[in-house]
Amino acid sequence: RDWLKLEGGGRQEHHVIEISDAVVVVPITRDDSIVLVGQYRHPNGQTHWELPAGRLQEGEDPAEGARRELLEETGHAAASLQPLPGFYPTNGISAHYAHAFVATGCEEIAEVQLDPAERLVPRCFTRAEVEAHLDAGGFADGFTALTLMYWLRLMG
Question: Does residue 2 carry a pLDDT above 80?
Fold first, then answer.
């Protein structure tokens, strides 16, 4: 909880959430499928199709964090990783920043390695399926929707 000093001498309470930065990855396999994870989200009690994403560990390079999250959540490794524009997903209440990437040439090399509280299942989709779901407003997760839009607009 912060207190902002206003013009005229007044004060206003402002709530700020402090969490570490994150990464989000568009994983594209060698056959041009896109790997999404069906992930249960406790706050809304629903499962959503999302891109692999997660918080960076202290001092971790964003590209390395993206490779780690990709492997942990999907079991895939990328031949190439390219940055996309990043963003502040909750700009009004947090300095939390999301570093976005597209991972190409992805191959499944391991089993998923989930954190104890994670409940997710990876699945491959065609580009047409992902575009149709995005166009229909089917991605409720902001990380996923915005990153897919950047990828399709800039690289697709």
Answer: no
Please tell me the predicted confidence (pLDDT) of residue 3: 81
Question: Helix, strand, or coil here: 49?
Answer: strand
3-class SS of residue 25: strand
Q: Which residues on neighbouring strands pair with residue 38, listed in sequence order?
A: 49, 121
Q: Enter the pTM of the model.
A: 0.89
The owner of tokens 């499962």 is 47
Question: Which of 58, 71, 57 lies closest to 25 in space, CA to CA?
Answer: 71
d(CA 76, CA 28): 10
The label of the residue with tokens 């990437």 reads: 101
Answer for the pair 148, 130: CB distance below 8 angstroms, yes or no: yes
